Structure formats: C-alpha cells, structure tokens
C-alpha cells in the first residue's frame, strides 16, 4: 500500500471551524479495556452513519488516548513523545493535571450530530468507561471567546496547519498523521473582567477588542497572552499550534469559560506556551489572562492516524505473528486471531460496523 501523507493519514484534526463542539473526557474502568478495543475500530463507521445524511453538518470526530491508557490498550510501538499532562505550579497560578484516558473531540455545525455520535459510542461502551468531563461548546458571535475577543485569528492554515499539527515520517515513522492534543477547561471571572475597559483588556490579550488587530510590539505588554504565546524554535522560526477553542457556559453552575484545545506535532511547543503562561518566560513575565481565567482541568492525548483506529494493534501482551511466519514453520505460534469478547452493551452483537 502506498504510504499516505500526514494530511491523508490523519483523523480530521485539520478541519474547518464549526458552530458547535462537544468535548468528552473518559476514563477506562478496570477491566474495561477489551470493550474499548472492541469499539475503537467502529468509531469511523459511527461518524459516517451519523454525519452522512448531513453533508453540510461537517461532523468531525477526533479520538485521542492518554499515556497510561495507551499502554493498557495497545501493544507494539508507542508514540515517541506521549506522556501524561505535566501539571504546573506557578508563583500565582496553577495548571492541574486531571484524570483522562480517552478524549472525544466532536465538532459540527449542529450540536445534535455531536450528541448522536456520542450517544452511540457511549451506549456501546456502557460501563467500560466513565465520563469524567463533558463540555458542550458553542461559537460565540464572530468566533469570540466569552472574554469578548476573537479567538483563533493567528491559527495556521492549509499546509502550515498540517505541518504544525501532524506528525510526519521524520518525527515518528510509526505514527505518521498523528497529533498530540492538550486540553484545558478554563473558567473566567467575568465580573472582574467586565470591570476593565476595552483598552485594559486589549493590553492583557495583546490585540484590540472590537477590530481584532494585534498591538504593535512597542505597545504590547510582555505579560500579554499573545506575547507569551509567541514561541520561536532554535532556528528562530515561530512555532505554531492549531487551536479549536470553544466558549461554554452554564447559568446554573455560574460558569463561563473557554475550552482550550491545541493540536501539535509535538507536545513540546504547547508545553512551552503553558510554561510561559503559568511559570513565566525567561524574564519572569506570566500571562495576565490567568488573573481572570482559572484552569480547572488538564490532559494530554495522542490522536493516532485513521488507519490505527480502524485496525488497532494487538492488545498488550498479545503479540501479532511475525509477517512471514506460518503455522508450519513456527509450531509454537498460535495463528488464531484473539477471540473477540462478547458484546458488553446489551446489543444483539450483530458484528462490526467496519467497512469490509
Ligand atoms: C492567541 C484566547 C488559552 C495559545 C489567543 C487570542 C485570544 C486567545 C483571544 C488572540 C487571537 C488569536 O487567536 O490569534 C485564549 C483564551 C484562553 C487561551 C480565552 C483560555 C483562557 C491558551 C492556551 C494556549 C494558547 C492555554 C497555549 C498553551 C495561544 C496562541 C495564540 C493565542 C499560540 C496565538 C499567538 C500569536 O501568534 O499571535 N488566545 N487563549 N491560548 N493563544 Fe490563546
């Protein structure tokens, strides 16, 4: 089979902005691994089933796995840079690491498509998983966050988005088209934020509020969000991540926030941004946005290529037979595929939804 480019191999990481999103973080219960492995190859079929009748709905489903979950679910090579989210304790603000084995990032123009996909998948998974975080995000006006600023303007696009977000063969030949995604749920202190003028808010973000223009370097404070998130590599080139942040809110909970989600070909770039924000840059400048926004969750997941989900490697400890081994020249090898567990979802077990 010809080798796919990162863009062709990837799940829909690089895909257009939508009006709605659902972020589901799951943990896998003890003993739930087999049920999860059973459902993973059917994820793309569920997305087709739900989204096919609504081409304008733009349903995109991205699935990622945390570091510990990866080792529970999959044998074989692991993504080179996959590790747990690194919690940060800065002088004034903290970024906690919170539980999470699986991330489902669902996007569409209409929330019902995200809901239907999640409903099918979670029903199949049954008691094998626990939903530990759930955020329904919405597009707020012209892609603003609830602080009132346009969010996503400087996102890379096209080939630059692919290069920023997706693993290529040079970086990790076993995981071409994969992506490292970091998520954090932030809640805003809206009363304190609203007490500031637009000008003061703009100095905290690093852009003007109404017309969304980046402040000139001479004016932009070093403690601004944009200044601290402009990160350059050793070659002096700016390093990008691909963000799909969404606004969320609940009046009952008294909560208004931004769900931060950043994809990158390496977790290092996003982690550098987080260190700048929370711990401070080399001059000790910390991000003033944190005086008004509190990180309440934090997780790091690896989003493998589509083909990995469709045909995951054997479970840990279930080694696959060597490619040229046959039962006759390898009497010790058991050529039978591992038995599929019985359905745990109460379904009739009519078999896989996978395309044949
Ligand atoms: C830029 C909002 C968290 C990385 C921006 C901008 C806004 C914004 C309004 C300017 C427009 C643009 O998108 O280019 C927020 C809010 C956050 C948040 C409300 C949560 C409270 C984060 C986090 C990271 C991050 C946690 C990284 C770990 C960036 C980057 C830029 C940016 C890389 C573009 C900088 C540039 O090159 O101009 N953000 N952000 N943001 N943000 Fe955030």
From TrEMBL:
Example GO molecular function: heme binding
Location of the region described as Disordered in the Swiss-Prot/TrEMBL record: 307-356
Biased composition (Low complexity): 317-333
Keywords: Iron, Metal-binding, Oxidoreductase, Peroxidase
Record-annotated Dyp-type peroxidase C-terminal domain positions: 142-306
One of the record's GO cellular component terms: cytosol
UniProt keyword annotation of Amino-acid biosynthesis present: no
Domain of life: Bacteria
Entry-linked InterPro entries: Dimeric_a/b-barrel (IPR011008), Dyp_perox_C (IPR048328), Dyp_perox_N (IPR048327), Dyp_peroxidase (IPR006314)
Occurrences of domain Dyp-type peroxidase N-terminal (ranges): 11-139
Cofactor: heme b
Family note: Belongs to the DyP-type peroxidase family.
Protein name as annotated: Dyp-type peroxidase family
């Amino acid at each position: 089979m010809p080798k796919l480019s990162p863009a062709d191999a990837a799940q829909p990481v690089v895909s257009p902005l939508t009006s709605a999103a659902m972020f589901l973080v799951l943990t896998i219960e003890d003993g739930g691994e087999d049920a999860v492995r059973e459902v993973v190859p059917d994820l793309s079929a569920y997305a087709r089933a739900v989204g096919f009748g609504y081409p304008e709905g733009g349903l995109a489903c991205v699935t990622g796995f945390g570091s510990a979950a990866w080792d529970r679910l999959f044998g074989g090579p692991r993504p080179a840079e996959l590790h747990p989210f690194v919690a940060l304790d800065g002088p004034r603000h903290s970024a906690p690491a919170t539980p999470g084995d699986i991330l489902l990032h669902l996007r569409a123009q209409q929330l019902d498509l995200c809901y239907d996909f999640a409903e099918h998948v979670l029903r199949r998974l049954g008691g094998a998983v626990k939903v530990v975080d759930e955020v329904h995000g919405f597009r707020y006006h012209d892609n603003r966050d609830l602080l009132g600023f346009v969010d996503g303007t400087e996102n890379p696009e096209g080939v630059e988005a692919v290069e920023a977000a997706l693993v290529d063969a040079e970086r990790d030949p076993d995981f071409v088209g994969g992506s490292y995604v970091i998520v954090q749920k932030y809640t805003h202190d809206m009363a304190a934020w609203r007490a500031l003028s637009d000008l003061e808010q703009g100095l905290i973000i690093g852009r003007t509020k109404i017309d969304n223009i980046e402040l000139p370097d001479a004016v932009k404070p070093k403690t601004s969000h944009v200044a601290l998130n402009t990160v350059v590599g050793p070659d002096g080139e700016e390093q990008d991540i691909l963000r799909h942040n969404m606004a969320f809110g609940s009046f009952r909970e008294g909560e208004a926030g931004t769900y931060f989600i950043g994809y990158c070909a390496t977790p290092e770039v996003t982690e550098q941004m987080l260190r700048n924000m929370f711990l401070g840059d080399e001059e000790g400048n910390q991000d003033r946005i944190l005086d008004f926004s509190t990180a309440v969750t934090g997780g790091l997941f690896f989003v493998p290529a589509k083909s990995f989900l469709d045909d995951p490697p054997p479970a840990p400890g279930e080694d696959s037979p060597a490619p040229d081994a046959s039962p006759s020249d390898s009497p010790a090898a058991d050529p039978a595929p591992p038995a599929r567990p019985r359905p745990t979802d109460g379904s009739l077990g009519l078999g896989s939804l996978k395309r044949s």
